[in-house]
Automatic annotation (TrEMBL):
Residues that, per the record, bind glyoxylate: Q132, Y134, R169, H280, R283
GO BP annotation list: aerobic respiration
GO molecular function: (S)-mandelate dehydrogenase activity; FMN binding; L-lactate dehydrogenase (NAD+) activity
Protein name (database record): (S)-mandelate dehydrogenase
Keywords noted in UniProt: Flavoprotein, FMN, Oxidoreductase
Gene expressing this chain: mdlB_1
Organism from which the protein derives: Achromobacter insuavis
Family assignment from sequence similarity: Belongs to the FMN-dependent alpha-hydroxy acid dehydrogenase family.
Domain (FMN hydroxy acid dehydrogenase): residue spans on this chain: 3-385
Pfam families per UniProt: FMN_dh
Length: 385
């Protein structure tokens, strides 16, 4: 395991290692997006359209990657984004990610659809913890989850607002994916090709999703063209409902899934403490704007009233640099750290953060920025699509 991770000197190498150890339906669940996956690809290529214009003759013998991050200093300008069902890719993967975040000095966000409970994460991986709440139709369940997060010491509540209904994830439909995972004629051969993963799931049983326990199991419905996401979520949730959640939560409120500047004033007005520019990693609405392309308008509408974070497409430390240069207060890492934990558990998650940290520090030195505050838009140029 160690030798393999030592060979993973980029996030893409971690992705390849994750793909090698997982059955195809499982890997595709984590790796895939909606429909033609245009938005999934655009999140990445938007960063590639930006070029760096370094400043020279500056002292960059030492660089400082620390800065305030949503009210509290962090060792890196990033947090681990909420990612669901991680334990199906690596047993105990949620705890592994949370521990890696704590050791790196950055926040970790626990997803409603995680395979670890609110209390387990707080007990086994204490650090800066955020809880991401999906808006469940079962409002009593939602209220209880938020109450438990507060009681367990989570400093922030993240409300994801871009998932009124689930997207059409065609990779999941093709595999007939279900949670809990089950064998069917379309995936049995794929599972058989990965006996280590399959035997573990068979002998120890698939992990549960504690926050969703008792809700109806979900499966891809090929006839109705519905994937596994969004089945228990509330499409009627609106601004007034968000305001009531704000009033009932004593910690920081982070609103994730904002890409249109017209929504910013209202969300800031009800008391949000931070915004996350995100299109859900391209997993719900296809042909949506890339997160990086939406950043400038959201920043302009926010007018410095709250920090604006970026989620989606971060695969390199230079991507973090570019987001900061455009004015983001930091980024969330979703697939980048997910590939790490899927490839190698806790050491893999640490490896992913190590790669991003090293690449960000190196990019800062090569661009003439010794602190995060020294990174600005003068160091960027835009290429033609």
């Amino acid at each position: 395991m160690t030798a393999r991770l030592d060979d993973c000197f980029s996030i893409e190498r971690l992705r390849i290692a994750a793909r090698a150890r997982l059955p195809r339906p499982v890997f595709d669940f984590f790796d895939g997006g909606a429909e033609d996956e245009i938005t999934l690809r655009e999140n990445v290529t938007a960063f590639q359209r930006l070029r760096l214009a370094p400043r020279v003759l500056r002292d960059v013998s030492r660089v400082d990657l620390a800065a305030p991050f949503v009210g509290t200093p962090a060792a890196l300008p990033c947090a681990i984004a909420p990612t669901g069902a991680v334990g199906f890719g690596w047993r105990g993967g949620d705890v592994a990610l949370a521990r890696a975040a704590a050791q790196a000095g950055i926040p970790y966000t626990l997803s409603t659809s995680a395979t670890a409970s609110i209390e387990e994460i707080a007990d086994r991986a204490p650090g800066r913890l955020w809880f991401q709440a999906y808006i469940l139709q079962d409002k009593a369940r939602l209220a209880d989850l938020i109450r438990r997060a507060g009681a367990a010491g989570y400093e922030a509540l993240m409300i994801t607002v871009d998932l009124p209904v689930g997207g059409k994830r065609e990779r999941d439909l093709a595999h007939g994916l279900a949670f809990p995972m089950k064998l069917n004629p379309r995936n049995v051969l794929q599972f058989a090709r990965k006996p280590a993963w399959s035997l573990d799931m068979l002998l120890r049983r698939p992990p549960a999703m504690p926050s969703l326990a008792g809700l109806a199991p979900v499966a891809a419905d090929r006839k109705a063209m519905k994937s596994v996401a969004g089945r228990n979520y509330d499409p009627a949730f609106k601004l007034d409902d968000l305001a009531r959640l704000r009033d009932g939560w004593q910690g920081r409120l982070i609103v994730k899934g904002v890409v249109n500047a017209l929504d910013v004033d209202a969300i800031v007005g009800i008391g949000a403490d931070a915004l996350v520019v995100s299109n859900h990693g391209g997993r719900q609405l296809d042909s949506g704007i890339a997160s990086l392309d939406a950043l400038a308008d959201v920043l302009a509408a926010a007018r410095g009233r709250v920090p604006v974070l970026l989620d989606g497409g971060v695969r390199r430390g230079s991507d973090i640099f570019k987001a900061l240069a455009l004015g983001a207060a930091g980024v969330l890492t979703g697939r980048a750290t997910l590939y790490g934990v899927l490839a190698g558990g806790h050491p893999g998650a640490c490896k992913a953060l190590e790669i991003l940290r090293d690449e960000l520090a190196r990019t800062m030195q090569l661009c003439g920025a010794d602190t995060l505050a020294a990174i600005d838009e003068t160091m960027l140029r835009t290429t033609s699509p």
